[in-house]
């Protein structure tokens, strides 16, 4: 390896891109079998956007949409909307900060399908906004096939999102997901029937959505609320409250201050029996 390790002052937290490169360099030295992969995906690039374009193209390209073509599409999106790269950086930090199994930035960047599917969605959403709906839907289909994560390209998703494991995530067309949300596998943000129009949930900032949670209909989940694993939510949940059960009821108001950051899935010992 001819790559030079960047020198970072010990009392300075390195930016995400510098930290990602440092980790990749160290991993390449310790695991020679993956040195070429780490160089191709991370070390040979000048910035996070270029590396992410390569990674998305490497994972999602097929015989119909070749790697170079898909890479060009991603680079176009990042050039015309630099916020996409800023969101990708915030998402990567969210994974590192909230997932106790995550040992650094290389791990989610290379291997976590929750992170990769979210970044592919961000490109698809940009394409949707440009009127390139067929290509956006193609990326949605490929993401569903590869990662078992199905997010409609029209869905609006904020920054600092953590999708843990990813398998079985389904998010509908008119859903909105606020900043700093965490969700586990099997979460559905869906409709309640065949109605058209605005029919999907609106998830506030800092919400924690437990594994297998189903939030259905055009309802609002308030900021910093918590939806317990396996719950089916059919009515709005006020900010700072916890909902649990089938159908879900409020069981704790208020819940912890920032459940999406603490990833605290526990419920209060005392259950208050009042409906949403």
Question: CATH top level of the largest domain?
Answer: Mainly Alpha
What is the CATH architecture assignment of the largest domain?
Orthogonal Bundle
Instruction: Tell me the number of helical segments per DSSP (H or I, 4 or more residues long).
Output: 9
The poorly predicted ranges are: 1-13, 270-276
What is the helix fraction of residues, given as a range? 25-40%
Strand content: 5-15%
In the sheet with the most strands, the strands line up as 3-6-9-12-14-15
Your description of this structure?
The chain has 276 residues and is of the alpha/beta class. The chain has 2 domains: 13-147, serine acetyltransferase, domain 1 (Orthogonal Bundle); 155-276, UDP N-Acetylglucosamine Acyltransferase, domain 1. The chain is built from 9 helices and 15 strands. The strands form 3 sheets. The chain has a 6-stranded mixed β-sheet. Strands 1-4-7-10-13 form a 5-stranded parallel β-sheet. A 4-stranded parallel β-sheet has the order 2-5-8-11, with no helix packed on it. The radius of gyration is 19 Å and the shape is globular. The chain starts with 15 loop residues before the first helix and ends in a 14-residue tail after the last helix. 44% of the residues are buried.
């Amino acid at each position: 390896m001819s790559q030079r390790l960047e020198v970072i002052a010990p009392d300075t937290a390195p930016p995400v891109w510098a930290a990602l490169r440092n980790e990749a360099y160290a991993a390449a030295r310790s695991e020679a079998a993956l040195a070429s992969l780490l160089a191709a995906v991370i070390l040979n690039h000048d910035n996070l956007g270029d590396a992410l374009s390569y990674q998305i193209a490497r994972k999602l390209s097929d015989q119909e949409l070749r790697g170079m073509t898909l890479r060009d599409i991603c680079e176009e999106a990042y050039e015309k909307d630099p916020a996409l790269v800023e969101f990708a950086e915030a998402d990567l930090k969210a994974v590192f900060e909230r997932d106790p199994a995550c040992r650094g930035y290389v791990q989610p960047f290379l291997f976590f399908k929750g992170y990769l599917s979210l970044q592919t969605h961000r490109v698809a959403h940009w394409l949707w906004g440009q009127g390139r709906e067929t290509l956006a839907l193609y990326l949605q289909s490929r993401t569903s096939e590869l990662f078992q994560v199905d997010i409609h390209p029209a869905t609006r998703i904020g920054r600092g999102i953590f999708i843990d494991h990813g398998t079985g995530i389904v998010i509908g067309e008119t859903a909105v997901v606020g900043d700093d949300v965490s969700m586990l596998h099997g979460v559905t943000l869906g409709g309640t029937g065949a109605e058209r129009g605005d029919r999907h949930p609106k998830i506030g900032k800092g919400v924690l959505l437990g594994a297998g949670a189903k939030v259905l209909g055009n309802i609002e989940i308030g900021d910093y609320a918590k939806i317990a694993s396996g719950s089916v939510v059919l009515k709005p949940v006020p900010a700072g409250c916890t909902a649990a059960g089938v159908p879900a009821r409020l069981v704790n108001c208020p819940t912890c201050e920032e459940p999406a950051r603490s990833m605290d899935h526990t419920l209060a010992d005392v259950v208050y029996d009042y409906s949403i």
